[in-house]
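Q: I'm teaching a short session on how sequence maps to structure, and I want students to see two examples side by side rather than one. Could you give me a first protein with its sequence written out and its structure tokens following it? Keep the formatting plain so it prints cleanly on a handout.
A: Of course. Example one:
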Amino acid sequence: MSAEDDGAVEIQVLRGSATEEELAALIAVLSEAFVAEEADAVAAEKPVSAWGRTQRGLRAPLRRDIPWGRFSG
């Protein structure tokens, strides 16, 4: 994580002159909207068929570094 990604957001007033109270109100409204949107953002569950539900997982690859049986040579 770099110094630029510290979570700080820069707000620029392009026209007029906003007071501190107006900026605080803007930040409060945007923060509340962000929290509401984040709470509603839920990934849809992928539908699973009966075939997929009963399917076995893939076997792990064979480990060649472990000898088979009682001999290692």
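Q: Perfect. Now a second example for contrast.
A: Example two:
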Amino acid sequence: MKFENLIPVSGGFIHAEGEPVDKNGLERVAVSFGPPHGPVTVRQVEDGIHDAYLSGYDAIIFCGFAFDAAAQDVKHPKIKVFYSHIRPDVLVGDLLKTTSASQLFTVFGEPDIEIKRKKNEYEVILKGVDIYDPLTGEVYSGSGDRIAAWFIDTDYDKRSFCVSQAFFPDSKAWDKLKRALKASIDEDKFELLTSTRSLPFKSGKEKRIAVKVIDHRGNEVMVVREIG
């Protein structure tokens, strides 16, 4: 989304407002930024949407380095809600190159996963994630094998994400390591490490799993699913 102007706003959970170049029914858009060292929370989203509605905005964009999974489930019948991930590079300040390709904000959807059940065990298949390209304005689907890393919490309690399984699908990133290890590498185990399919696991006490995906820019997004 490109803005004609973006003006700082003080007070509350709305930090800026602007007018989009391509309106598409959106005259005024609010922007809310998350903390530098933490996720955008459910409270921030709920309060931000409430403030945006009372102030007459058509939409609100929440920008953050990470998002609580439940925060992305908050909806409003009259306010459009968008989530934009900020690249961690922005924290290094003046060390960044100011080129047209240096996009610090990336909008992408929740991971596309499939859960398979075999008797009393489950497997998760990572199919990919939808990513918005700010240079072209197009949304494309990134396949699972192009993801930098993905993790599963097989017993997610909605408070803290604990890694139960970890995978790094981009096999090209491991080429140097494979050459360095040479004959000492176990190809079968290495293939499991780069898989987009999890190892079998049993349902935990919470009956809930969370899958966190990290792209090559360091952005992360998470999806939560209930299981039997």
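Q: What should students look for in example two?
A: Point them to this: The mean pLDDT is 82. Also worth mentioning: The chain has two domains: 1-86, 111-228.
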